[in-house]
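Supplementary Methods. Inverse-folding protocol.

Structures were first reduced to a discrete structure-token string of length 278. This string, shown here, constituted the complete conditioning input.
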């Protein structure tokens, strides 16, 4: 019996590499570390912190017109040894321009073009997702069952010459929240211009955000500026500058928040960041 088990194990080991080699494996990730200055930029408030730190891989295999894939992604935060904050697993099938996903799926947010400095957007969740395109039209749908947020979302964007117009809508019964996004973007003389309106109705309490954005590149430098107003209560301004130094992405960001009410203190934050993608 022992000899049979050993032979069986050797046979399995000989066959397994053939199965793995038939699929494509892609690794990717990014590591960001930043020096942060907050509020009045006093020395006591400054810190060194992690930016967006993540690692993931995708395994895919194509049979005929269908490509099956599986991805695993780890998101980390903090520099104190307790880094793992979340992970995502997704499986799906691609056929032409149509993709079906199950697991960690990005929410449908067509029209969210002018950045997200006022907290617009929800990112991703555990759901079923479908995305695709037909000519100049891109579309998507998202469904999360009750135990995963109980949300339905759909949206589309259409490119009419140099202008792209997008819209999306989502409804989450578990939190009695409805979300609507309408936006447009274009590129003129190498400069991208974008604007969007973002509305959230949470049980009758509405939040409206209007944002505008401009960005571009000049030689080895990139820049961006975004302004957003929330319910005539506060306004945000963000300035981004970026370049590449010795293979590292170097960036600077300044962001300020001005509140209309004198009872709430205005806020500001800036950071210098180094990043490496792979």
């Amino acid at each position: 019996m022992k000899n049979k088990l050993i032979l069986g194990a050797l046979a399995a080991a000989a066959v397994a590499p053939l199965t793995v080699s038939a699929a494509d494996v892609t690794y990717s990730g990014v590591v960001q570390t930043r020096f942060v200055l907050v509020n009045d930029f006093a020395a006591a408030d400054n810190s060194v912190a992690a930016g967006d730190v993540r690692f993931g891989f995708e395994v895919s295999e194509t049979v005929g017109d269908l490509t099956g894939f599986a991805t695993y992604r780890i998101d980390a935060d903090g520099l104190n040894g307790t880094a793992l904050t979340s992970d995502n697993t997704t499986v799906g099938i691609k056929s032409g321009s149509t993709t079906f996903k199950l697991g960690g799926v990005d929410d449908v947010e067509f029209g969210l073009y002018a950045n997200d400095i006022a907290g617009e957007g929800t990112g991703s969740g555990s759901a079923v997702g479908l995305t695709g395109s037909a000519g100049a039209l891109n579309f998507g749908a998202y469904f999360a069952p009750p135990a995963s947020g109980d949300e339905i979302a759909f949206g589309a964007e259409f490119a009419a010459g140099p202008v792209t117009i997008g819209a999306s809508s989502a409804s989450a019964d578990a939190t009695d929240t409805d979300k609507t996004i309408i936006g447009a973007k274009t590129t003129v003389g190498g400069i991208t211009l974008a604007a969007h309106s973002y509305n959230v109705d949470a049980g009758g309490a509405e939040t409206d955000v209007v944002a505008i954005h401009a960005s571009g590149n000049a030689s080895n430098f990139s820049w961006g500026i975004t302004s957003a107003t929330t319910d005539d209560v506060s306004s945000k301004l963000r300035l981004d500058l970026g370049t590449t130094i010795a293979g590292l992405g170097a960036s600077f960001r300044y962001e300020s928040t001005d509140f209309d009410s004198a009872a709430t203190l205005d806020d500001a934050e800036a950071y210098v960041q180094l990043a490496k993608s792979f």
